[in-house]
Design goal:
elongated; 7 helices; disordered N terminus; Thaumatin; alpha+beta; 13 strands
Amino acid sequence: MLTQEFYELCSRSHLSFVRRLFTPRAHDGLEKISRFNSCSRAGVYSTSLELTNECTSTVWPGVVSGHGTPPLTGTIFTLEPGESASLFVPASWSGQLWARTLCSYDLTGRFNCLNGDCGTGSEECASVQAIPPVTVAMFNMSGNGGLDFYGVSAAHGYNLAILVVPQGDDEGNCMATACVDAPDGPSEIGRACTTTCFAFGDPENCCSGAYAPPGTCKPSYYSSYFGSRCPWAHRYDDDDGKEKNRTFACSLADYHITFCPRPSPATGHKVATGAGTRPSSARKAKRVIIIVLVVVVAVIAILLTFFEKLDGGLAVGIVSAIYTALGLLFAL
C-alpha cells in the first residue's frame, strides 16, 4: 500500500501535498518521508517540508513562493493540535512558511486570520506575504554549491514559536534553528510582538530611504532586545549584512518545521543554541565566587572544630551560611 501511495505521488506532477496524522513518539512519518525522498529527488519534487502543529489550537499554515518561483499547489490545509502534513517542493524552490491562527470566514465569505493573515480574503496566500507581526521560516533550495539555505526570521515580528530541523545529509552548517522564546516587548512598541518598523514607520527602523544601503541600517535598542530573546532569528531587514551565521546551509536534506515546539526537542541533530541555553559570563563568575566562599567557610569551620573553638551558636551560623550559599549557587 505504501509503495503504491508513493508511486502515485511521483507520477502525478500536480500533487505537492500529502496529509497525515503525526504521532511524535512513532516517527514513522519521518521514515515515510525518507523512503519517498529517493523517488522525489529523481522525479518532480526533490525536498519535503514537514509541518507539525504542537500548539494547543488549530493552525492554518501560510505558504508563499519567492520572486520568480512558481507558486506551489495544494497549500490550502489546516493542522489540528498534534497533526502534521508534508509539502513536496521542487529542487529550485524558494519561499516562506508561517502559522496563521484564529482564522474564520466572515459574513461576506472572506477568510481572515487574527494572526499571520495575508489579506487575500481566501485560505490561499499565493504570492502575498503575511501581514506583520509574524514569525517566518525561510527557504532557498539549491543555492550556491547546490546547498539549501534556510533560517527563521522575526524581522517582521513574532506571532508564535517556530523550530526548523533538517532531516538528512550533514554537509555545510546543517543545524536546527528556531525562535521559541516569546518576547514581552518594551511598552513603547505598543504591541508586544510587533516590529519597530511596524510600530514607528520611520526609515531608520524600516531600513528604507537613507538607511536602505547595506551597512547603514543598524540594530536598534528594540531589535537588540528581541535578538536577546531569539538570538538565532533574523531581527531586521538588513540583518544578514553582518549576521550571516543566522542563515544555515544543508545538502540533500528534508526539513521538519514545528509550530509551538515543546521545550528542548530531541532532534538528533546539531542545534543552534542561543544565549539562553548557556550560562552567561557574569553568571559563571557569580558561581565561581559563591563556590570559593563555600569552600572558605567550610575550611574555617573545620579549623575551628580542630582547635575546639567552635561553639554551638557559631556552628549553626556557619551551617546556615553554607546552605544559603548553596541555594544561591543552584538558583543561578
